[in-house]
Each structure stands twice: as C-alpha cells, then as structure tokens.
Specification:
Elements lengths: L2 H17 L23 E2 L4 E6 L9 E8 L6 E3 L4 E8 L2 E5 L2 E5 L4 E4 L5 E5 L5 E8 L4 H11 L6 H5 L4 E4 L5
Antiparallel strand pairs: 1-2, 2-3, 3-10, 4-11, 5-8, 5-10, 6-7, 6-9
C-alpha cells in the first residue's frame, strides 16, 4: 500500500474510531441516564449499588462523581481524605453525618461538604433505601478505590492498603 493511500485510510477511519469509544474522553460532553454507569460497569460495597457518573479521566483528575443507590442502613467507617474534599447530596432517604465534632442529618435535597483533612463518617438511617450523589475533588485515587473494592463488595480493613487510595481509616462505622 502506498504511503498516501495509507494516510488517507487512516484519516477516513478516524471518525469511526472516535464513535466506537466506550469511555468518554476529557472535554467530551456526555449525558448519563438514570440508573446507569458512565462506563457500563457494576460496583458495590455490599451496602449499596454504585454508579460512576463522571470519571477522573473526563475531568483531567479534577473531579470524580458517583451515585450510591439502594443504600441499606449503615455506611463507611470513620475516615479522612488528606487530599480530597468530599461532597454529599441526599436524593432519597435520611443520613446521619459527622464531620469533626459537627453532627447533622441530611434529608432529600440537603448536601454537605466534608473538607479534606477533616475526619468524617456518614450512615443511611432511614427505613427505606437511600440514594446519595458523592463527589470528590480533586479525584485522586477514589475512582480506583471504588473500582477495586466495588468488585469484592467489601471495604478493606488494612490501613496500608487504604493509604494507597488517599484514605485513612480512623474508626468504625456509625452505630445505627
């Protein structure tokens, strides 16, 4: 094949290759339908179904957003993110949140910012399943954390494993 024809073929096939992408790239606008994961994957930590809504790659590491769906009573262990702010938005259910010494309850439509370096913990306390939108900025390794442990359905207990993802475990989950 002549070089000229090879280059033409490459240029003509580029749009088809772009359409075949399954992962949204940085600077690409996209919509994610209700009940779906932006990458078409499935994740769980045992107490909820997790849907990735925006990945770190799409935002050049600036943001990672997920949806915790069908949250049973309970939540993660008390922890801190040394380098990420974490934001919660309650869509359904009732959530008890502790940030440092502050204690509050989130109802549908409420949100709270949990600043980096400030210990926090939350739990779904309602009688019906809950739903949260959670955002991390910058994204750090949080997407990798949810991808890795979302396969097993169990939160890690080894503190050295957690530090690889930018998390420090400080205590048990909230008692419900």
């Amino acid at each position: 094949m002549q070089r000229r024809n090879f280059v033409k073929l490459g240029m003509l096939s580029a749009p088809a290759l772009m359409l075949a992408q399954t992962k949204p790239a940085a600077n690409d606008a996209h919509a994610v339908s209700a009940g779906t994961d932006v990458l078409g994957e499935a994740h769980t930590l045992g107490f909820s179904k997790i849907l990735f809504k925006t990945t770190a790659a799409e935002t050049n590491g600036g943001l990672f957003i997920l949806e915790h769906n069908n949250l049973e009573k309970g939540g993660p262990f008390r922890h801190v993110h040394p380098a990420q702010d974490e934001w919660l938005y309650a869509m359904e259910g009732e959530f008890r949140v502790e940030i440092g010494t502050q204690k509050l309850t989130l109802h549908p439509g409420d949100s709270v910012l949990m600043p980096r370096k400030l210990p926090h913990v939350w739990a779904q306390t309602g009688d019906t399943p809950g739903k949260l939108i959670v955002a991390f900025t910058p994204a750090g390794n949080m997407e990798a954390f949810f991808r890795e442990f979302g396969k097993t359905g169990k939160l890690p207990t080894d503190a050295t494993v957690l530090t690889q993802y930018g998390l420090e475990r400080l205590g048990p989950p909230l008692s419900i």
